[in-house]
Design a protein that fits this description.
Blueprint (H helix, E strand, L loop, with lengths): L6 E4 L3 H13 L5 E4 L16 E2 L10 H19 L4 E2 L3 E5 L5 H13 L5 E3 L1 H7 L7 E5 L3 E3 L1 H8 L1
Parallel strand pairs: 1-2
Antiparallel strand pairs: 3-8, 4-8, 5-7, 6-7
Helix pairs in contact: 1-5
């Protein structure tokens, strides 16, 4: 018996599944297949990454990466909420341990502000309240950075 499809997606990780989901929404009558070499989805990079839902602090303001990261974070949080997937809002600190790192830290802070990411510049005392073992000259606190189990996200997409 021969199978015939209109669209073939190669790879059953987060990118392949999200692509399949978007195509299915846009063309619900299209016959779509996901080709995955492993027995389970999200076996490789998707299932073995740190699970960070990035805030958008690193990208140049106005760039596609910045816009899509901030927008994508909101979409991911909505998806997780809708599907009962646990999201840990752990936050993140980015530290400067040497004087030479301070200009780059300032640039990241300014990018975060410009991209609409909640960020604050904190001093060593404030940093130690968050992480007693951290030693830095200054730090950026990004309270909106979160983590999720992307295997669960992939399971909800199928």
């Amino acid at each position: 018996m021969e199978n015939s499809y209109d669209i073939a997606i190669i790879g059953g990780g987060i990118i392949g599944l999200a692509t399949a989901r978007a195509l299915d929404e846009r063309a619900p009558r299209a016959r779509l297949v996901i080709l995955e070499k492993e027995a389970k989805l999200a076996t490789h990079q998707t299932g073995n990454n740190s699970g960070v839902i990035h805030s958008g602090i690193y990208y140049k303001p106005g760039s596609y990466k910045a816009k899509l990261c901030v927008e994508g974070k909101g979409l991911m949080l909505d998806f997780c909420s809708k599907h009962g997937i646990r999201v840990d809002h752990v936050g993140k600190v980015i530290v400067a341990t040497e004087q030479a790192e301070l200009p780059r830290l300032q640039t990241l802070y300014e990018r975060g502000v410009a991209n609409g990411v909640p960020v604050e510049m904190i001093d060593p005392g404030q940093l130690r309240e968050i992480e007693p073992h951290a030693n830095a000259l200054r730090a950026i606190r990004s309270p909106s950075t979160a983590i999720v189990d992307y295997k669960e996200v992939c399971a909800a997409m199928t």
